[in-house]
Amino acid sequence: MPKMKTRRAVSKRFRKTGKGKIRRNHAFMNHNLEHMQKRTKRKLRKSEIMSKNDVKRIKQLIAYK
């Protein structure tokens, strides 16, 4: 059976932590930032752990990362 291919677009958006959890970046940080509060922008800068519902699907897409 052939190897699974890593989805390149997904591998650029998500990464695994040391314990195998999946980290992601927040949305809404590309443009039109002048109307946002500083506090909101500061919170969106940090990455976040994916919810358990989506982890299984993402792990299949980044199998070898």
From TrEMBL:
<comment type="similarity">
    <text>Belongs to the bacterial ribosomal protein bL35 family.</text>
</comment>
<dbReference type="GO" id="GO:0006412">
    <property type="term" value="P:translation"/>
</dbReference>
<keyword id="KW-0689">Ribosomal protein</keyword>
<dbReference type="GO" id="GO:0022625">
    <property type="term" value="C:cytosolic large ribosomal subunit"/>
</dbReference>
<dbReference type="InterPro" id="IPR037229">
    <property type="entry name" value="Ribosomal_bL35_sf"/>
</dbReference>
<keyword id="KW-0687">Ribonucleoprotein</keyword>
<dbReference type="Pfam" id="PF01632">
    <property type="entry name" value="Ribosomal_L35p"/>
</dbReference>
<protein>
    <recommendedName>
        <fullName>Large ribosomal subunit protein bL35</fullName>
    </recommendedName>
</protein>
<dbReference type="GO" id="GO:0003735">
    <property type="term" value="F:structural constituent of ribosome"/>
</dbReference>
<dbReference type="InterPro" id="IPR001706">
    <property type="entry name" value="Ribosomal_bL35"/>
</dbReference>
<dbReference type="InterPro" id="IPR021137">
    <property type="entry name" value="Ribosomal_bL35-like"/>
</dbReference>
<dbReference type="InterPro" id="IPR018265">
    <property type="entry name" value="Ribosomal_bL35_CS"/>
</dbReference>
